[in-house]
Each structure stands twice: as C-alpha cells, then as structure tokens.
Design a protein that fits this description.
Rossmann fold, seven-stranded mixed beta sheet, 10 helices, 15% strand, dynein, P-loop_NTPase
Length: 418
C-alpha cells in the first residue's frame, strides 16, 4: 500500500490508518491542541463575560437601584438671603422684587438642549432658614448624592453674619451628606470611589493639600446682593470680609463667587459657576480675587499664603483662625438681626391669641408630618437598596410622584426622575 503523508497525517490509499503509530501520535497531539485551544477560548470568554457583568452590575446599581443620573442643585441659606431670586435668574425666569418667601422645601427643574441632547437639572430650595435644616435629608440621599451640588447663599447686604452663617451651613451640609455617602459607599462603592477621586484630584499638587478638609459633595458659596455690598462699604472693610470668606472656603474646598441678579457681570459669574457643575462644563471663567470686584474663585485655585493670617494671629492662643476671622468681621460690620435665624420663637403662651395660635399649631403639625414622611421615605429607600440582590423587579426603587408641601401649600408636583 502506498502511504501518503498529507498535513502531517498518515493516509493509506486516501484513508487514515488508525493503527499507524504516527497517526496515533498526531491524533493525540491534535486532541491536546484542541483542549488547549478550548481552554484558552473559555478563559477569554470568561474574562469577557466578567467584564460585561461588571459593567452591567454598575449600570444595575446606578439605574435599577435608583442612583440618579440627573444633576441636582440644593440651595440653602438664611431666610431672605436671595435664594429664590438667584434660582429664578439661573433658570431665566422673571425676578420680582416681591418674590414670595419659600417656607419649607421647594422643587423645580430646568432643561437645556445642547448638541441635540436634553440636559436636565433638578433644583431644591430650602426655605425657613436654620429652623428647617433637617429637611435637607430629603434631597441629600444615597440615590442622588453622586450627582448633587450644594449652593450656600450668603447675604452681602448684611455681611456681619456672613462668616457665622457660612460655617453653620457647611457643617449642616457635611452632616447630612455624610449619612448619604456612608450608605453609598456600602452599597455602590465604585461610585463612591469616583466621587473621592473627583474631589481630590484638584489638590494632588496643591501646596495646602494637607490643610484642606475636602468635601466630596461640591459646595458653591454664592454671596448674593453684591450690588448693595459694592456701593455701601469702604475698601478696607470689603477686603477683610473677602479674606475671611476666602479662608473658610479654601479650608473646606468650596467654590466662592459674588452674585447679583441686577448686574450683568456677577450674574454671568454665578450662572457659569453653577453650570460648570450641573452641565459637566469644565470651562472656567477668569479667577478674580480683587476685593473691589466680584470674587470668582474656583475650589483649588486659592492658597493660604495669598490669603494671609487674620489680625491677632500671633496672640491667638488656642483660638482658631476661623474664630478670629469671624470676630473681625462681626466688629467691622453692623449685626442687625443678630442670630435671627437660629432663635426660636420662645414661650408664645405669654402672647396667646386664639386664631393665630390655632393657625400656628396647624402649621407646626403639618411640618412635623412632613418631616416624618421624609424619614419614612428614607427608610424605605434604604431597605430597597439593601434588599436588592440582582436584576428584575425585586430591589427596584419605585418612585411615586409626590408634591413638595411647603407651609401648607402644595408646590409644583413634578418630582425629579430617578
């Protein structure tokens, strides 16, 4: 028989000889090669599946568990500090001199179309000043915290309380944010890690990086009514306030901008500052640290050496720089309505009036009921987040449309989409 060798296999008259040792050896080698190739392909396929599952898991955590992809801005500050006017101007709504005071938590939204894509921003305004700060639990949740920025509004027409107000609201925002961040870190650690990276990268090479208490949730300090401040006080006093504000903002990693709804430049500055956070716009307007102009300072662009120390720093003892700056400002500027925002109404029984007391009691009951609803909603969201074990209907956060009750009146009943 004529043996033919083709492709390394022994054939006899065109037929493979199963008894040929060469054939048996080649067959075994081929079998081993096929097994090796199969194993390699399985490993590659497994790796690809793992990568895809990782991506799907992140998407599931972000979407199925209710992590909001829409941007949110929360405005806080003292009563009548100008929050409503700044929001209206940002949304290009009319600004009225007699705008109705916000009495609890108000919600509205704005949209912008760019490159045929609609971008939406949800805006919360906390009314009522310090007495209603507990309501921040509603917008600052684990489901929205990664896409949220907070605007602390200070009133430059009453600068004497600016530093005290700023420190109070930074503390309150940190406290409420921390609860949401801890829940986010526990359930969606990758999103939490991304927040940490975003917050810290601007200080990686900063000289003051070890002295700054960075906030993972961006804080924008909006100093309203700059038009009044600019024309009412002498340059030396304005410089002291600007330095004090810069110190506190830099120490806490906050943006700082002077705003006004009546002047073009301050309006453009604060709108650009907010837009940079909510529309992922990395473009920066010019940084301005001149105390005779509207301050415009992005987090990470200031430094303590440029700000300097407050007067009396050499003899301060255990007094912190923050307290020194606060004392200086309170001496420089009149403090009309001092501590107005933190003062409770006291013993109203001394001034009882039946109809007024009945209405007050009704409003107090409505407010307490609203606070309870917020707490129940947060517990419900937390249970859903912890119970979610995989894709499907189980573990999904079902968001129902709910109006925001403010002082007994129902505001616009359009909730943010999750």
């Amino acid at each position: 028989m004529e043996a033919l060798h083709r492709n390394g296999f022994v054939e006899v008259n065109g037929q493979q000889n199963p008894n040929d040792p060469s054939f048996l050896q080649q067959q075994e080698l081929q079998k081993m090669a096929n097994q090796s190739l199969g194993n390699d392909l399985w490993i590659l396929a497994s790796q690809k599946i793992q990568e895809q599952m990782s991506i799907l898991l992140i998407l599931y955590q972000l979407l199925c568990l209710g992590i909001s992809q829409e941007k949110t801005v929360v405005f806080v500050g003292e009563k009548q500090s100008g929050k409503s006017s700044l929001i209206a101007k940002f949304l290009d709504d009319p600004v009225k001199d007699d705008m109705k005071e916000t009495t609890a938590l108000d919600f509205r939204y704005g949209t912008r179309t760019k490159d045929d894509k609609k971008q939406k921003v949800n805006i919360y305004e906390l009314g009522g000043g310090r007495t209603l700060s507990a309501l921040l639990a509603a917008p600052l949740t684990a489901f929205s915290i990664s896409s949220t920025a907070v605007c602390i509004v200070l009133d430059l027409s009453a600068p004497g309380g600016a530093i005290d107000s700023l420190q109070y609201w930074i503390t309150v925002v940190r406290e409420h944010s921390q609860k949401a961040l801890e829940e986010l870190q526990k359930n969606v650690p990758r999103v939490f890690d991304q927040m940490q990276q975003r917050a810290s990268e601007k200080y990686e090479k900063h000289d003051d990086r070890n002295k700054i208490n960075i906030t993972l949730v961006p804080i924008i300090v909006l100093c309203s009514k700059f038009d009044i401040f600019a024309n009412q006080y002498e340059s030396v006093k304005k410089k002291q306030l600007c330095l004090a504000l810069r110190y506190i903002c830099h120490q806490n990693g906050c943006d700082l901008v002077f705003a006004s709804v009546k002047e073009k430049i301050p309006t453009q500055l604060y709108k650009a500052m907010i837009a940079r956070h909510v529309f992922d716009n990395n473009l920066q307007t010019k940084v301005d640290k001149d105390h005779n102009q509207a301050l415009n300072i992005y987090a990470g662009t200031d430094n303590f050496s440029n700000i300097g120390e407050p007067e009396g720093a050499g003899m301060r003892g255990k007094t912190s720089f923050e307290k020194l700056w606060q004392d200086i400002i309170e001496l420089q500027f009149p403090k009309a309505n001092q501590n107005q925002q933190g003062v409770q109404l006291g013993d109203m029984k001394k001034y009882s009036e039946e109809k007024v007391d009945a209405m007050r009691q009704q409003k107090d009951e409505e407010l307490e009921q609203y606070k309870k609803e917020i707490e129940r909603a947060k517990r419900f969201e937390s249970q859903k987040l912890n119970a979610a074990g995989g894709p499907g209907t189980e573990g999904k956060l079902v968001v129902k449309k709910k109006a925001v009750v403010a002082g007994g009146a129902v505001k616009r009943s359009v909730p943010p989409n999750r």
